Automatic annotation (TrEMBL):
Matching Pfam families: Ras
Major place of residence: membrane
Organism annotation: Callorhinchus milii (Ghost shark)
GO cellular component terms attached to this protein's record: plasma membrane
Subcellular location: Cell membrane
Membrane topology: Lipid-anchor
Span of the signal peptide: none
Keywords assigned: Cell membrane, GTP-binding, Lipoprotein, Membrane, Methylation, Nucleotide-binding
Source species taxonomy: Eukaryota, Metazoa, Chordata, Craniata, Vertebrata
SUPFAM superfamilies linked: P-loop containing nucleoside triphosphate hydrolases
Molecular function as annotated in GO: GTP binding
Alphabetical list of Gene3D superfamilies matching this protein: P-loop containing nucleotide triphosphate hydrolases (3.40.50.300)
Name of this chain's protein: Uncharacterized protein
Length: 61
């Protein structure tokens, strides 16, 4: 099978405190933190299998 890769960029927009980081952390880390914590320049990474290939998500926010 031929392997290919694609780079996709997602942008999360919204006012402070609306849940952008919570959404990212839930998807990538399967966690939820109920306390608000200001985030600046964090990077989340996650690898997972898709159709026999490995995908790497790197999400800065």
């Amino acid at each position: 099978l031929k392997r290919s890769s694609a780079r996709v960029r997602l942008v999360f927009l919204g006012a402070a405190g609306v849940g952008k980081t919570s959404l990212i952390r839930r998807f990538l880390l399967d966690t939820f933190e109920p306390q608000y914590r200001r985030t600046v320049d964090e990077l989340h990474r996650r690898e997972y299998a898709v159709g026999g290939a490995t995908a790497l998500n790197k999400v800065p926010h």
